[in-house]
Amino acid sequence: MIGVIVNTITVLVGSAVGLMAKKLIPDGWSDFIMNGLALCVIYIGIDGAMAGENALITILSMAAGAVIGVAIDLDKHLNNFAQRLEARFKKDDGKTTIAEGFVTASLLFCVGAMTIVGSLQAGLTGNNEMLFTKATLDLISSCIFAASLGIGVMLAAAFVFVFQGSIVLLAQLVEPFLSDSAISEMTCVGSLLIIALGLNMLGITKLKVMNYMPAMFIPIILCLFM
């Protein structure tokens, strides 16, 4: 859980700094820094994708996961949920509320392949490297977003702790079913989704990454037979 705790603390610290420096960060800087973060995310994805040992498993996992994700339409459900919350809590004058800041930050910090893969790695192998990397990104992101969205971003730290902590703890339950090969292939597939997130952040693509999320768990089944 050390990675989850560190990630939670970085969101709190980054948000505190952002709130204090709210009037000191020019609007143009935010976009420039976020583009730099996007490049880092793509690098992390490429590095993680090298963990894969069987390209066929990756291809089959992405294909099967996409079919499942599109059938369920995870991206649509997630966006609809967020829009309902934002519509409910947003003030009539259009200003950002605490609830809106909380929802936006929670989605930013917890919806993504890096969260899932990092938490699984922490729970299964004790490797917190990806969560530490994510914590660094969240430190900067929370600072920038708190400067524009307010204290709601700081409150999202609680959601980060509960969401990622739950994945870490549940990972222990499935450990008997996961081989080293399965973990490597899951990391590879998840890293491809991380690359997609980076491309979306840069505005190059508009991929519905959430609809590919089931692909990360398909290698567990495929590695039993391949």
Descriptive terms for the model:
single chain; mainly alpha
Percentage beta strand:
under 5%
Secondary-structure content class = mainly alpha
Shape descriptor:
globular
Helical run tally: 10
Helix content: over 70%
Distance between the termini: 32 Å
Order of helices and strands: HHHHHHHHHH
Q: How many separate domains?
A: 1
What does this structure look like?
With 226 residues, the protein is mostly helical. It has one domain. 78% of the residues lie in helices and 0% in strands. The chain contains 10 helices and no strands. It has helices at 2-20, 27-49, 55-72, 74-89, 98-110, 113-125, 129-149, 152-174, 180-202, 218-225. Helix 2 runs antiparallel to helix 9. The protein is globular and about 55 Å long. The model has no long low-confidence stretch (mean pLDDT 80).
Set out the fold topology:
Blueprint: H1 2-20, H2 27-49, H3 55-72, H4 74-89, H5 98-110, H6 113-125, H7 129-149, H8 152-174, H9 180-202, H10 218-225
Helix pairs in contact: 1-7, 1-8, 2-9, 3-9, 3-10, 4-5, 5-7, 5-8, 6-7, 6-8, 6-9, 9-10
Short description:
This protein is an all-alpha fold and about 230 residues long. Helices cover about 80% and strands about 0% of the residues.
